[in-house]
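pipeline/complex-builder :: batch 7 item 3
reading input block
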Amino acid sequence: MKEQLSIVKIGGSVIEDAEGLSHLLELFAKLDGRKILVHGGGKKATEIGQKLGIEAKMTNGRRITDAQSLDVAIMVYGGLTNKKIVAQLQAFDCNAIGMSGADGNVIKAHKRPIKEIDFGWVGDVDGVHTENISKLLQADFTPVFCALTHDENGQLFNTNADTIAAEVAIGMSEVFETTLYYCFEKKGVLRSIADDNSVIPHIDSEKYDQLLKEGVIADGMLPKMHNCFQALRNNVKQVCIGDSDMLKKTNSNFTTLTL
Amino acid sequence: MKEQLSIVKIGGSVIEDAEGLSHLLELFAKLDGRKILVHGGGKKATEIGQKLGIEAKMTNGRRITDAQSLDVAIMVYGGLTNKKIVAQLQAFDCNAIGMSGADGNVIKAHKRPIKEIDFGWVGDVDGVHTENISKLLQADFTPVFCALTHDENGQLFNTNADTIAAEVAIGMSEVFETTLYYCFEKKGVLRSIADDNSVIPHIDSEKYDQLLKEGVIADGMLPKMHNCFQALRNNVKQVCIGDSDMLKKTNSNFTTLTL
C-alpha cells in the first residue's frame, strides 16, 4: 500500500493576514503524515513592485511578467514569503525547507509559448522530479514551495501556485497516495457565492459537468476546478477545497472532489 | 577516514559581476566531492533598500538591521541572490538547494545582546544542525546558504556570511574532513595591499601573530582572519583564501591557512 501524502496549497487573502496565516500554519504543522506546502504570493509582490516603481504590465487584461516583475516575484515569493513561512513552521516544530522549482531541480518548466499574448517569464510546467522530492520527505523534511519554476538552463519562471500544487500532487502520486488541499478564504465550493454556508460537500465528474452547465462554477473557480480535475484524472486520490479549518481533523464542512 | 567536504564562501564584488559570478559558479559546480556554497548579498540589498525608501541605519559607523532592513535582506539574500545562484548551478549540473538557517532548521541563532549598540535583527550563531545538513549531502543535494539564521521561534536574523561559512565548516567537521574556501576579489592575503601579486602562500598560527604585529592584517581582513583561525581551532582542517580561480585544480596561487 502506498504511503499517504498531503499537498496543501494556501493562497488568497489567507496569506495577507498575519494572524490567519499563523493559525493555518499551526494546523498544517499538526497534520499527520508526510506533507508538502505550496504558497502563492498574495498582494505583497504588487505592493513591493509599486514601491520599486515597477508597473504591473497587462495585455488584454492578462498580467505580463517582464524581467523586473520576475525579480520582484523571486524576491517576494522565493524570499520574503517563503522564508517567513518556513521560520514560522519551524516554530511549530515542523521541519520545513523552502523551495523554488530550481532548488533540488524539482520542477522543470519552459517559457509559455507566444500565441496572441507574450506572457513574459511565465513557465508552463514540464514535470516534477518526484525522486528528489521523495528524498526530502524520506529525510523528514517538509518541502514548502513558492510559485517559481526553472528551465534547467539558469532561467527562473513565475508559475501559478494552483498549477504547481496540482503538478506536484500528480508527480508524487507515482509513489504516494496523495490528497490535494486547496485552502482559501471560503469554506468550499459554494452553490451561491453570496452565501458562505452554501458549501457543496462533494463534487464528482458528473456533478462537475452539471455545475458548469448551471454556471455555479465561474470566474476564478473555473481554472481552480480545472486544475483539480486535471489532478484527479492523473492519479491524485482526492482534492479538498475549503478554508484553514479544513485541516482540522474534526471538521467536515468543506468540498471534496473525486472523479 | 572521514569523507571530504568543501565549504566555499563567495562574497565581495564577485557577487556583483554577472560574468565573474557565472565563472565562479561553473568552477564550484566542477569541484569534486561533497560541497556547500555560502554567499553574501553584495550591494544589491542596499540598492533595493534605497529604492524602497529604506535608509541604511548606522550607529557609531556600524550598520543596524531594523525590521524593514531585515525584510530587504530576506528578499534579496534569501530570494533574489539565492534563487538565481541555485538556478545557475542547476544549469551547470550541480543539484543545488537554496537555504536560509531556518530551512531544515540548520542554523540556530539568537538576537545579538544589546551592549553599547542595539544591532537590531542581527543573529549570533548558537550552532549548526549537522545531521540535517548531512542528510541533504547524503541525498546528493548541494546546499547553498544565504546569510540568514533563525531562533526556532519564528524570528529570522541577518548574520554575517563569513561567520555562517565558518560555523557551518566547524559544525560539519564532526562528520567530515572540511576545507573552508573564502573566495573574494583578491588572489589571497596580500603582504602589500597595493600589490595584487604579493600573495602570502601559507599562514600558520605563528605567522598570523607576526602579521598582526606587523599590521599586514588590518581593516576588513581582521574579522575574516579571526573567523578563519576560529574555524581551524575547531577542527576545520584547512582554510583557503583567494579569488575564483582558487577553485581550479591547477592553481596554487592563493593563501592556505592551518594551525
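note: Chain B touches chain A through 43 residues (CB under 8 Å).
queue -> next item
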